[in-house]
Amino acid sequence: MADREQVSTPEFIERLARAFGKSPRLFGMPPDLLGTLLSVIGQQDTHDSLIGSLELDVSKAIATGWQPQVTLDEGLRLALSAQPR
Fold first, then answer.
1. DSSP 58-80
2. Which long-range contacts (CB under 8 A, 24 or more apart) does 69-72 make?
3. Fewest beta carbons within 10 Å, which of 20, 29, 32, 71?
4. b/e per residue, 10-38, with b = 16+ CB within 10 A?
5. Residue 55 half-sphere exposure, CB side, CA atoms within 13 Å?
6. What's the CA gap between 80 and 18, in Å, rounded?
């Protein structure tokens, strides 16, 4: 299953960091430059997984009446609270 709310990878990292009480420390990089750097180090296949969309279609689950029990942010806080710090 997935959350109803779809977020980008940078937004997910920002929310995860916020749930952990940390700064996300993200920086931007043009996709073409990232592709070149990955190619140079022999990781061309990694480009699509970093840049591509990982969005799931949850419309069929929603149509059945399924609802997530917690929001994305609540789920992140719950998952992190279960981990030893």
1. -HHHHHTT---SS-HHHHHHHHH
2. 71/3, 71/5, 72/3, 72/5, 72/7, 72/15
3. 32
4. eeeebbbeebeeeeeeeeeeeeeeebeeb
5. 10
6. 11
Residue with tokens 């609270």: 81
